[in-house]
Amino acid sequence: MAKHRIYTTSFASVYPHYVTKAERKGRQQSDVDELVRWLTGYSQSQLLEVIEQRTDFETFFAKAPAMNPTRSLIKGVICGVRIEEIEEEIMREVRYLDKLIDELAKGKPMTKIKRETN
């Protein structure tokens, strides 16, 4: 099966769209960064480096320091597809991130977006 185009797309080319979507709804770039760091385990400096180097999504997720184990709690539909039914690992990771940004833009509190139980 051919790889989806998203695998070779740089994270840096999509990142501004995440920020714009969040900012249109009154959220901030720092909120987007917080969610990306929560999902992937990148530090802020590592995240900035990934953006500067124009790292593709496949590498972005493959080299993530510590994918959050609770990300499997992210469920729902994104782009017409149920996240929990996506079999391709990288595509599922991309959709997890898309869903987090959608929830951020919808005004959900960070604790709910991060699936925190406290």
Features:
mainly alpha, globular, Helicase, Ruva Protein, domain 3, two-stranded antiparallel ribbon
Explained architecture:
- The protein is mostly helical.
- The chain has one domain (7-109): Helicase, Ruva Protein, domain 3, CATH 1.10.8.
- Helix content is 53%, strand content 3%.
- The protein has helices spanning 11-24, 29-40, 44-52, 57-62, 89-105, 110-113, and strands at 77-78, 81-82.
- The chain has a two-stranded antiparallel sheet with strand order 1-2.
- A hairpin with a 2-residue loop joins strand 1 (77-78) and strand 2 (81-82).
- The mean pLDDT is 92.
- Rg from alpha-carbon coordinates: 13 Å
Which class do the helix and strand fractions yield?
Answer: mainly alpha
**Order of H and E elements:** HHHHEEHH
Fraction of residues in β-strands: under 5%
What layout of secondary structure does this protein have?
Elements: H1 11-24, H2 29-40, H3 44-52, H4 57-62, E1 77-78, E2 81-82, H5 89-105, H6 110-113
Antiparallel strand pairs: 1-2
Helix pairs in contact: 1-5, 2-5
Quick summary:
By secondary structure, the protein is mainly α. Helices cover 53% and strands 3% of the residues.
